[in-house]
Specification:
The protein has no helices and 11 strands. It is globular.
Length: about 120
């Protein structure tokens, strides 16, 4: 059974930095992984994608500020120069099929396995 557990969220001031972690387990082959976020009253959006070929793609709103990486069974999201509009619940997710990351970041409908999320709050 695939399990995803996020950690590392918190409250920071604008311009600050956070690093989110996601512990993934229960799978036997590598596949695409991604980070998503959902702000209150808004739809969940894809933030960053990493496929098994090492390709990364990002939403335009976070390009140059966020970086996705993976080390063994841990997925990371380095978030620099955080802004109030980055405030949201952040989720990691895993796709079961082999595929390349789409331009513009991951697509929610492609991911069947999700964590419960970690809250990020950025104050001005």
């Amino acid at each position: 059974q695939v399990q995803m557990v996020e950690s590392g969220g918190g409250s920071v001031q604008a311009g600050g930095t956070l690093r989110l972690s996601c512990a993934a387990s229960g799978y036997t082959y590598e596949s695409m992984m991604g980070w998503f976020r959902q702000a209150p009253g808004k739809e969940r959006e894809g933030v960053a994608c990493l496929d098994l070929w090492g390709t990364t793609t990002y939403a335009d709103s976070v390009k140059g500020r966020f970086s996705i990486s993976k080390d063994k069974n841990f997925l990371y999201l380095q978030m620099d120069n955080l802004q109030p509009e980055d405030t949201a619940m952040y989720y990691c997710a895993r796709r079961s099929a082999w595929a390349r990351c789409p331009a513009g970041g991951p697509v929610q409908a492609d991911f069947p396995f999700w964590g419960l999320g970690t809250q990020v709050t950025v104050s001005s």
